[in-house]
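idk why but the lab printer keeps eating my pages so im just putting this in chat instead. protein + adenosine-5'-diphosphate:
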Amino acid sequence: MLEAQEIIWIQNHKTILKNIDFHLLPGECVGLIGPNGSGKSSLLKILAFLEPPTSGQLYFQGQAVPKSVPLTIRRKIAIVFQESLLLNTGVFNNVAMGLKIRGLPKERIREKVDYWLEQFGVIHLSKQSARSLSGGEAQRVSLARAFAIEPDVLFLDEPFSALDAPTKEGLRIDLAKVFKSTQATTVLVSHDFKDIAHLTNRALILLNGEVVAQGPPSELLKNSHKEEVDRFLAHFSS
Ligand SMILES: Nc1ncnc2c1ncn2[C@@H]1O[C@H](COP(=O)(O)OP(=O)(O)O)[C@@H](O)[C@H]1O
Ligand SMILES: [Mg+2]
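predcted complex ->
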């Protein structure tokens, strides 16, 4: 579905990503984990075509992705960030927007918006303004908006990290259910191993812009790695 070969990203003479190879198969949820500043968001931005890499090549659905990424490809992906970027309008409109842009008929839009608001447990907020939502509700609406366009690849950059612990736990459980039923092809970024363990089949550990280990989350915790990787993982083994 998505592949990256030898990605290097340099900004202001600083090498932020070093020689990263990545692939994502249809139906897979792959995690990117690492401490703050390790390059997770940078890699996600490159994989989601928000930033061009300094060197290296991206492939999307088997085709090399050109430097200037066409709208036809951009429209096949959806991104959810840590802070929900909802528009200052109603909840319904926020979820409907992407479907309107894609030219869906009004009836289909209503069905889909209602369906996804329901899946994320926020259908009762449909008529409310996005401004009036709590952090957890806003993130649920953001996820509904992303799933509604049925993207070929979904990117989630720390979607729970601005939430308090119980809110986060609830959303993680609901998201896991949605993953199970949709098999959405997803890249999930988190600095919390618990998110990765619950939601992904495979994860890459980033440290200082490099992939230092990868595998199924349970294996990552079991295996021993370079000292600095083990030091990072030690926070999560109990
Ligand atoms: N546009 C940019 N210009 C310069 N430095 C950047 C830019 N984006 C990220 N960085 C730097 O790259 C490093 C990795 O950042 P980031 O990808 O946001 O890490 P993470 O998401 O893992 O916390 C940090 O040192 C950050 O300051
Ligand atoms: Mg980040």
